[in-house]
Structures are given as C-alpha cells and as structure tokens.
Amino acid sequence: MFPVGKDGRLGEASDFIQHQGSGPNHDRQEKAHAHWIDLSPDNRFALNADLGLDEVFVYRFDATKGKLTPNGPPFAKVAAGAGPRHVAFHSNGRFAYVIDELNSTLPPFPTMPRRETSRITKCAHAAEGLHWRKQYCGDRGTSNGKFLYASNRGHDSLAVFAIDPATGTLKFAEHVSVREKRHATLRSIPRERDC
Fold it and tell me: Which strands form 136-141's sheet, in the order they lie side by side?
C-alpha cells in the first residue's frame, strides 16, 4: 500500500502483505499469485483474488493510516484449482461476483445467496477438435446493475448474465463471439488453429 501525494507521486509504502502457499495446479499455482485487488464500494474493505491459493482475501482498510488488517473471516475459499482472477461488485454494493480463470466458472461468493456454480464457458472449439491452451477470464458489472459480463480470451467470447436485483443471482443470457471483430481488426495476425 502506497500513499499518493498531492503531486501524484507515490510515497513510502505504508503496508506490505505477502501471501504464502500454493494450489493443486502445479503449472499455474506453484505459489501465491495475488492477481487482483480493489476496495469495496463503501471503501471499508479491500478484496484480493489470489489465483495461486484459490482464495479471495478480505482485509479491513484504514484509509487514514494506509493499513490493511485481515477481516474475520480473512478469506473466502473457491474450488481447489479454480484460480480466482477477478471480483466485480454490483452497483448496489450488496453483491460481489468472483470469476475463476482456471476452470472458467463464476462460483458463489458469501454475499450471493445461490449455492451452485454457473459454468460460463464450454469451449465450442472442442467440438471442432481445437483446444485452447489458456483461458483468461475477467468480469465486469454494468453501472445499472442489470448485467454481468464475463470475458474469455482464448475462447474469444463474452458470456452475458442477467442479474436479479433482489437476490443478486445470475441467469445466463447469451454468449457473444468477439472472434470476427478481433480478426477483422487484426487481419495480419494468423489464427491460432493448432493451440
């Protein structure tokens, strides 16, 4: 954690936290991998998705001192080997959504009432005999709180979910391919046929 001066420069670090451990996927989770961090909408908590540990850490945020202290409980666990990459907050501040990179899922988070996992991607290319080596996912909610978008590089798609405003639960709406637009824009780059 670094204070930001009035001139925009970073000051001396006010806090430092190093996660320890590893996950079951030896290729991608050989050590802690703090992939994403952001403050909750109310500015009271910092959430940190650690892809290497299959945990979303929750810290209490002290803006005056620039300190993070573990919350109680200090983390939310996702499925072993799932690799949480990103957290998106609903615009109402009551719901949070975690996207897992390694198995392309949106698991239930403690603020979400639904207990099943929404599978966002079953790679359509598998049916054609093509297999993508990597899938990098991210998620983002719309400012009006009606939809959650989950991106998937490798599959070149967006999964769109409608959000129930009362419960925060997700209902799959559609997959949108971004392949044609990407390749129309980047025609000089060969398609990854043998991945």
Answer: 136-141, 147-153, 157-163, 170-177
